[in-house]
Amino acid sequence: MKREEMKEDKFMGRTAEELAKLHAFVPPAELNPWHVDPGPGMWTQLWAWFKQAKETTLDECKLSAADTERFNAWKDEIMGPDFAKAEAELKMLEEVTTAVGSPVVFCHNDALAENILVVNEEEILLIDFEYGGCNYRGFDIANHWNEWAGGTQAEMNGVPVYADFPTPEKQLVFCERYLAAAGGGGDAAALNEEANKFVLANHWYWGLWGLNQAVTEGCDTFDYLLYWQNRLKEYYTAKGK
């Protein structure tokens, strides 16, 4: 799917339905040995990426001299000295999101445009489950909404367009279609509020991913460092609203 198609009503509704179907999936018992953690993976992964980012020294990384200069210019504002600001933000978000009571389901965790296959005018499929696993329902929906802004596409090169984030009206329609596909019942406004509780944490999730990618791969083929900066810049902007 093209990023611009994500906000078209026909594709938006079908994506909501496919996420609802996925969230109803129960992994068969024979896969239990490979399900190391049946609980929500969001915070386990977030703290692991935070630890990786904090403990990797610049002389071990693949950032060029110019990229290292950019990192040093942005680091204290985004992460704080010794990453203390980032750690405080994550602890606050962990408290907020765990208090939501969002159901733990099987999630895609990466439902961006390129991972939604348009089969025909009537059917789409979620593909590429590299990041799939048990997680909060609200996180998966919030992740998809943030992906309306893009940023990882080659032509965007780390610069999301947050003006494309779904409007409150679009979010509510999405939640209505999701609940209808889930068997009806439920409060769309409540689901909308639930998902929005995860929007901010999702910026840290993929922001830290981008920082670690920059360190391990460099920024020659994609500006991971700029993506990290833009995701966290949007975090602080959205938090302040």
Provide a descriptive summary of the structure in words.
The protein is mainly alpha-helical and 241 residues long. It has a single domain, classed as Aminoglycoside phosphotransferase (APH), C-terminal lobe (Aminoglycoside 3'-phosphotransferase, Chain: A, domain 2, Alpha-Beta Complex), CATH 3.90.1200.10. It has helices spanning 9-23, 42-55, 65-78, 84-98, 137-147, 168-181, 188-196, 199-217, 224-239; strands at residues 104-107, 116-120, 123-126, 133-136. It has a two-stranded antiparallel ribbon with strand order 1-4. The chain has a two-stranded antiparallel sheet with strand order 2-3. A hairpin with a 2-residue loop joins strand 2 (116-120) and strand 3 (123-126). The two termini are 31 Å apart.
Structure in a nutshell:
This protein has nine helices and four strands, in the order ααααββββααααα. The protein has 241 residues and is mainly alpha-helical.
